[in-house]
Specification:
The chain has 134 residues and is α/β, with parallel strands linked by helices. The protein folds into two domains: 2-67 and 100-128, Rossmann fold, CATH 3.40.50; 68-99. Helix content is 46%, strand content 14%. The protein is built from seven helices and five strands. Strands 1-2-3-4-5 form a five-stranded mixed sheet. Helix 1 runs parallel beside helix 3.
Length: 134
């Protein structure tokens, strides 16, 4: 029930957000995937540029995602935890960063009548292309 309440509030927010908004970053939440089809429909209907945190949402017709590879993050965390448990001093721990990557759905961009410049495609890791008309 709480999950549905969250989805209802999120849907209402998307319906009422200003169309002058350049873009919106949606944060990760387990309930979002359950209502992804409805949320994507609202963003398409209102031509809202929403960036989601996962490829799952981009495959579900959202415009783009800026994400990390979670298993790599977990491996980094496990490595650091191992070093700490072996009494490595904090000053001796390596500084590790996560490399994010971009996913784009050009089919959604086309439906929103957005032009995505070619140079914006170069840093994208995954690109979903528009389906060809038969």
């Amino acid at each position: 029930m709480l999950g549905q309440l969250f989805l209802d509030e999120l849907t209402e927010l998307l319906h009422n957000i200003s169309k002058d908004m350049d873009a919106t970053l949606m944060l990760r939440h387990s309930t979002v995937n359950a209502g992804l089809a409805d949320l994507s429909a609202v963003t398409l209907e209102r031509t809202l540029r929403v960036s989601w945190p996962s490829m799952v949402q981009v495959e579900g017709a959202t415009l783009n995602a800026y994400e990390i590879i979670r298993h790599e993050v977990r491996a980094q965390a496990a490595h650091i935890a191992d070093q700490v448990l072996k009494s490595t001093l904090p000053g001796k721990l390596a500084v590790e960063t996560v490399v994010p990557f971009l996913d784009l759905n050009l089919q959604t961009a086309k439906a929103m009548e957005l032009e995505i410049p070619t140079k914006a495609l170069h840093p994208a890791e995954i690109i979903i292309h528009a389906k060809k008309q038969e």
